[in-house]
Design goal:
Layout: E1 20-21, E2 28-34, E3 42-57, E4 63-67, E5 73-80, E6 91-93, E7 98-106, E8 115-120, H1 121-126, H2 131-134
Parallel strand pairs: 1-7
Antiparallel strand pairs: 2-3, 2-6, 3-4, 3-5, 5-8, 6-7, 7-8
């Protein structure tokens, strides 16, 4: 899986915002956003099917996938656009702008019927331990508690 996680210390420049994320398995129409080899941002539109798979590298630039119901990879068929070399690690987003996976590899960009394989964000969240940081419990706020103690015995004047 191509996953990195950075902690930003400081204010972001104007127009920048954080994407949400989900561990749900994406099915249906999705959007891919990538910067191939540092080029201008490209946006692709495609469909994720219900099948999942396990993938492994067979060489420096090639990999194989096998269908598996419990697999951590999804296949995205592109309707408009695609992905290009140098885009590994880029995100695929749900329709509500939540990150659902990151690019492992696939066919060339702008090719009819091209496809790409994405590792599920769920895998990075669980196996890569991102959940530790993304669901971190806030530091508890300690509120002073005052207790009034009453003595029911009569007091003497």
């Amino acid at each position: 899986m191509d996953t990195s996680f950075f902690r930003l210390n400081g204010t972001l420049s104007g127009g920048v915002y954080f994407a949400g994320w989900t561990t749900a398995i994406p099915i249906g129409n999705r959007t891919g956003v990538h910067h191939p080899s540092g080029d201008w941002k490209k946006i692709s539109f495609g469909t994720v099917g219900a099948s999942r798979g396990d993938c492994w590298w067979t060489g420096e630039t090639s990999f194989e996938c096998q269908e598996s119901a419990s697999g951590n990879f999804i296949l995205t068929g592109w309707n408009d656009g695609g992905t290009e070399g140098g885009s590994s690690g880029s995100g695929i987003f749900e329709n509500n702008d939540q990150l659902a996976g990151d690019l492992t590899g696939g066919g060339g960009g702008d090719c009819a019927d091209s496809f790409s394989f994405y590792s599920l964000f769920k895998a990075a969240y669980q196996t890569g331990n991102l959940g530790r940081w993304l669901n971190a419990e806030p530091e508890p706020v300690l509120t002073p508690i005052y207790q009034l103690l009453l003595n029911n015995e009569p007091s003497e004047p």
